[in-house]
UniProtKB/TrEMBL annotation:
Family affiliation: Belongs to the LysR transcriptional regulatory family.
Protein name listed in UniProt: Putative DNA-binding transcriptional regulator
Short name of one Pfam family: HTH_1
Keyword entries, A-Z: DNA-binding, Transcription, Transcription regulation
Gene3D superfamilies per the UniProt record, alphabetical: Periplasmic binding protein-like II (3.40.190.10), Winged helix-like DNA-binding domain superfamily/Winged helix DNA-binding domain (1.10.10.10)
InterPro entries, A to Z: LysR_HTH_N, LysR_subst-bd, WH-like_DNA-bd_sf, WH_DNA-bd_sf
Length: 290
């Protein structure tokens, strides 16, 4: 006897449950002749009729009643085997600091969505300190930050290089005194990666607190500097148009440009959710290959 097929069993179960070949065909998205043929082949292989044909109708008989529970169990087991190799859903939670979240990450999210259109991605834009807290509390799967992170539970690696450029409006630039500590400044708040980098790199040249307007996002810094509120260090990726059209100008002198690494951070002991390895591979690819 030839082996029974799942197609035959599906046809049999649907005819039994629906009470007609027409309705079974609709449930299986097959034509009525295809369902009739599958049922006929099954009965021929078993050597028994599974339905009594009364007029134009089908009524399951004792042979069919005997086969039905086993057929359902076989189909369920087959579905279980198929499910073992179905890709699990991708549901990722990311945190990114402001420059990364606003200017770098959107490109990679778009590229990832093209390869995994079913993926659900949630991105929260915070400062570096808050990003670390999200990772430690297992509220995020991955963080992309602007400041170095040192914690025994977190793995941190350099992701990209970014350049901060010191800028002001041309009108303010003409009025600036010679000493930078007397300039009006616009900066990120304490706890942000950009602020930590500037405090370290400027050292004794870091301006006194009374000269600083603190704002909570990179875009707020950019808008305040455009409005003439002070001098600011802004990522070059956010400056292109404003420098090109003359709304902002470089404040020349020592440390007018500061290079800094951007970091990718993950929890050492958290099991990577489905899709995270693929996203990390995309993020770590050379920019021209992403």
């Amino acid at each position: 006897m030839n082996a029974l097929t799942l197609k035959q069993l599906r046809a049999f179960v649907q005819v039994a449950e629906q009470g007609s070949i027409a309705r079974a065909a609709g449930q299986l998205s097959l034509t009525q002749p295809a369902v009739s043929l599958a049922l006929k082949e099954l009965e021929q292989q078993l050597g028994v009729a599974l339905f009594d044909r009364i007029g134009r109708g089908l009524v399951i008989n004792q042979h069919g009643e005997r086969l039905l529970p086993q057929a359902r169990a076989t189909l369920a087991e087959a579905a279980g085997c198929e499910a073992l190799f179905v890709a699990p859903p991708v549901n990722l939670s990311l945190v990114a600091t402001h420059t990364v979240g606003n200017y770098y990450l959107p490109f990679y999210l778009g590229a990832f969505r093209q390869t995994r259109p079913e993926a659900r991605l949630r991105v929260e834009v915070v400062n570096t300190r808050a990003a670390v807290e999200r990772l430690l509390s297992l509220q995020a799967d991955l963080a992309l930050v602007e400041g170095p992170v040192s914690h025994p539970m977190l793995a941190c690696q350099v992701w990209r290089e970014d350049t901060l450029q010191r800028v002001a409006t041309p009108a303010l630039l003409r009025q600036l005194p010679q000493q930078s500590q007397r300039w009006p400044w616009v900066m990120r708040e304490t706890g942000s990666g950009t602020r930590a980098v500037l405090e370290t790199r400027l050292g004794k040249a870091f301006p006194p607190q009374q000269q600083i307007i603190e704002l909570g996002s990179a875009e707020a810094i950019r808008q305040a500097v455009l409005a003439g509120a002070g001098v600011g260090y802004i990522s070059t990726v956010a400056l292109r148009s404003a420098l090109a059209d003359g709304r902002l100008a470089t404040v020349p002198g020592e440390r007018e440009r500061i290079s800094r690494p951007l970091f990718l951070v993950r929890h050492r002991e958290r099991t990577a959710p489905p899709g995270l390895a693929a996203l990390e591979a995309l993020l770590m690819a050379p920019p021209g290959d992403a």
